[in-house]
Amino acid sequence: MVNTALGPRPARSASGRAMSPSRAALLETLQAQPDPTSLQALVTMTGLHANTVREHLDALIRRGLVTREQAPPSGRGRPGWLYRATHRGGEPERPEYAGLAATLAAVVTRTSPDPARDARAAGADWGRRLAQDAGAPDAPGPEAARRQVGRIFEQMGFEPESEDDGDATTMRLTRCPLLEAAHQNREVVCSVHLGIAEGAMEVYGEDGSGSELVPFAEPGACLLHLRPAPR
């Protein structure tokens, strides 16, 4: 049985009728996505069984809370379905970087001999610019620098939950503005996000070269470990 406490926060029912916690969590996950999302991506994000997600989606469609559309053809076989919430539930509009990152992922995957390396380097450049725009941390030292990186990820829509542990910080990234792109190009999209963290740490004068991003590490979250290189 999936522990729903590990997943996204329950959503409010737009129709006023009660729904199960797992169905409400699935609806809120969809409300947070900027693009139509596949069944498999929702399974990965929520930790629910595919049949359970399919049943919830069918019920949400009947209630008018979710719509579906056919995905573009990709190879053999019948195209799958993509799902979108009909109401965004007060979520902010799609971040400007989302479309750029999705395009970058597709181009890097198609053209680079080492997509993860090049995506990480591009993310680091991006992180340096974001850190300069965000301004200096509120105090000196690595812990304050990591807090400022958390604020950058908050502004990008990841809703991080941070926990400090000595010379490292673990951030649970409870939202992904690029869930579908990450599901299709995980190596590239997640490497960009890791690079953003490393580039920002560099601007703040701290070593983040030992950082690691674990995609889909637990139901409802990826894990970003901010830490210096091993000694």
Describe the structure.
The N and C termini lie far apart (about 40 Å). Helix 1 packs across helix 3 and helix 5 packs parallel to helix 8. The chain has a 4-stranded antiparallel β-sheet with strand order 4-5-7-6, with helices on one face. The protein has a 3-stranded antiparallel β-sheet with strand order 1-3-2. With about 230 residues, it is an alpha+beta fold. It has 8 helices and 7 strands.
What can be said about this structure in brief?
The protein is of the alpha+beta class and 231 residues long. It has helices at 21-31, 39-46, 50-62, 96-111, 115-134, 142-155, 179-184, 186-203, and strands at 37-38, 66-70, 81-85, 160-165, 168-173, 212-218, 221-226. It starts with 20 loop residues before the first helix and ends in a 5-residue tail after the last strand.
Uncertain residue ranges: 1-16, 90-94
* Count of individual beta strands: 7
Mean pLDDT: 82
Percent helix, as a range, is: 40-55%
Note the beta-strand portion: 15-25%
Total number of helices: 8
Specify the structural class.
alpha+beta
The largest sheet, given as strand count, sense and whether it forms a barrel, is: 4 strands, antiparallel
Separation, N- and C-terminal Cα atoms: 40 Å
Strand order of the biggest β-sheet: 4-5-7-6
Keywords:
231 residues; four-stranded antiparallel beta sheet; three-stranded antiparallel beta sheet; 46% helix
What is the topology?
Layout: H1 21-31, E1 37-38, H2 39-46, H3 50-62, E2 66-70, E3 81-85, H4 96-111, H5 115-134, H6 142-155, E4 160-165, E5 168-173, H7 179-184, H8 186-203, E6 212-218, E7 221-226
Antiparallel strand pairs: 1-3, 2-3, 4-5, 5-7, 6-7
Helix pairs in contact: 1-3, 5-8
